[in-house]
Amino acid sequence: xDATEHIDPNDPEAPVHRTAGAPxxxxxxxxxxxxxxxxxxxASVVELDMIRGIEVGADGAVAVGVALTTLGCPLRAQIKAExxxxxxxxxxxxxxxxxxxxxxxxxxxxxxxxxxxxxxxxAPDTEVPATTRVLAVASGKGGVGKSSVxxxxxxxxxxxxxxxxVLDADIWGFSVPRMLGVEGRLAGSDGKIHPxxxxxxxxxxxxxxxxxLKVVSMGLLVxxxxxxxxxxxLILAKAVEEFLVKVRWGxxxxxxxxxxxxxxxIQMALARLLPQAEMLVVxxxxxxxxxxxxxxxxxxxxxxxxxxxxxxxxxxxVTPEGESFAVFGSxxxxxxxQEIDAPLLGExxxxxxxxxxxDDGRPVVLDRVDGAAALAFRALAERITxxxxxxxxxxxCTARIFETAAANLAAKRTG
Length: 415
Ligand SMILES: Nc1ncnc2c1ncn2[C@@H]1O[C@H](COP(=O)(O)OP(=O)(O)O)[C@@H](O)[C@H]1O
Ligand SMILES: [Mg+2]
Fold this sequence. Notes:
This protein is of the alpha/beta class.
């Protein structure tokens, strides 16, 4: 490449037209690159601001710099092949060379933000309001108390007078209806499903409005054979999508999702459908058990879902005499929090009442309000409403800014 031309790919003034037969302009190359989609972020590499300079030699050799979120990006080869194929197909191009660089932290979060809104623009509309805070409760493996944390946190938030949705996304291992003491069948009308509701007395302000829980679970779905079969045929991610799109949730301050254990596709589906979702990782105090929990946090981040914190459950049980029994070890929550660089938001003690109350459909947070576990769950709820994920003020402008941004992006894409 002897004579090269360096054009800032973001410069709208850059020349596009060239004499016929000559190599294309850098701006033209950039236009073609709009067709290269980052399969993970589901957006054009141009839109994601991943193109870092385009050089076109007089001999028709083109060099394209691509900034990746991480240099170890597994999709690197695929993006390279796409760039080569698109640019190589342009008249006048004799060679295509792709070089890589890594995005700075700031560029990375900007790209993720764009990708999230972008993904949303192409995703089906959910019935979850944009003003609802969404918290996915996940764990590396079953039996650590994911459902117990979900229902007690939901009940604690509702006991502050809030409206809280609970989506039992653990489709096959559902336990939320039993733990919250709701039963019956979900009602439906005009193709939509209505959540089962339950009121919760306001414990923070006894004169204030009651809180509400809106529960949706596989365990509450119609029990006729064909409907059950239909749901069984759906892959997990699709079933969760159905719950988000077909359920008439209505206004909610929070939506808590009891995530199924395992795979990352459920997180990806969630991130795509509800880009505002954040993840809470539940773990036990056993230090050795953190590997799988780390993996869950990794998967969430790969879907650009923020991990907002860690909850250690089954922490040391303290007798009224002050004697402490660390049945399942100690330090696991703090170790995980440090490893995944997220705050440790709470430690819920091991307490037989948690289990007994769950079996009775009366979450310990509402049943044994002065017990250590109830206090720990309430402290967790307060931490979340105070600073981790404070409720969005309906009249505030934050949600509108988000909506405007989404609308602008949608307009830009169609325009
Ligand atoms: N802090 C706790 N103290 C005592 N028992 C608990 C506690 N947390 C959960 N359990 C019990 O442990 C079992 C597993 O909890 P669960 O919430 O169903 O876990 P997961 O949803 O992760 O599978 C249940 O029987 C539950 O009642
Ligand atoms: Mg469970």
